């Protein structure tokens, strides 16, 4: 009989956000995966269409045009950028390259669902440090949890699913205490939705601390979730490790072309982000009038720490066509959607009777 090794057998399977609702014939709003509610821009579709004409060839693994455009945009050297099939794959590469059996990879919990899967898949040991009661990273507890086996620390800011951002100075003080041989990965998948001036700015911290890498994605703010394009900004010694474990030809020319077109269309995309931020503010203003424990969000979703009521609230929202992402016993993460979706959400929340 074919058998999985013990470290794989115990991995919880990644559950994608739900996308259907039974028994509801009104509009359905899929707010379970933090996707951008806007369809791709015409200029991006054009770039994809043009790139499709060479899909009988393998893609250019060096992604030269995208690398040059992004390096200029971020003010980093081209050699400081590496792409992958979504930032989740780049996170996996970082873990595979720098942690193995007997090594520990630390992250806050609850945080991005993929971390435990990626860490266990690499044969390393996950170390989960609980968030504070107000749903934030507990940085002193993370420092205290460092052991000689710690190889990587993920800081997800803004944090999925709670939306809370780590403060810039707070993270700076944390980094000053982390031994320099530990790689700290600042996962900024939602950074484009961050508007608190005191929230951590990963790229600035990257410049200051040689053991920091930053993860970004084109999936969320740039709306390219299905094309799978993410990247890390990191130093040469990190890049060397990544190059050894990266999936060959993972990032298609189509994704690269879409990335370049998206960078060219940033003003249009920013206008969409601005609308989402207004919608987030409206949702938060509504939530402030309720007694839900919902921390201020710096991301494109809100978190309702519904605790034991999570399943009942999720069932109620689903019965109204609202699909959020429920973590039983903990809470529901709901993406900021179109204005209609958000109105439907407010209406659905308003009609829920708390037990
Ligand atoms: C914190 C965080 N990091 C990384 C990702 C991965 O995004 P992608 O692989 O689409 O770039 C996600 C997606 O949900 C996320 O929430």
TrEMBL record:
Catalytic activity: an aromatic L-alpha-amino acid + 2-oxoglutarate = an aromatic oxo-acid + L-glutamate
Role, per record: Aminotransferase that catalyzes the conversion of aromatic amino acids and 2-oxoglutarate into corresponding aromatic oxo acids and L-glutamate.
Pfam families for this protein: Aminotran_1_2
Quaternary structure annotation from Swiss-Prot or TrEMBL: Homodimer.
Keywords: Aminotransferase, Pyridoxal phosphate, Transferase
Keyword flag Transferase: yes
Cofactor: pyridoxal 5'-phosphate
Taxonomy of the source species: Bacteria, Bacillati, Actinomycetota, Actinomycetes, Micrococcales
Record-listed E.C. numbers: 2.6.1.57
Protein name stated in the entry: Aromatic amino acid aminotransferase
One Gene Ontology molecular-function label: aromatic-amino-acid transaminase activity
Domain (Aminotransferase class I/classII large): residue spans on this chain: 28-349
Gene3D superfamilies in alphabetical order: Aspartate Aminotransferase, domain 1, Type I PLP-dependent aspartate aminotransferase-like (Major domain)
Top enzyme category: transferase
Modified residues (N6-(pyridoxal phosphate)lysine): 220
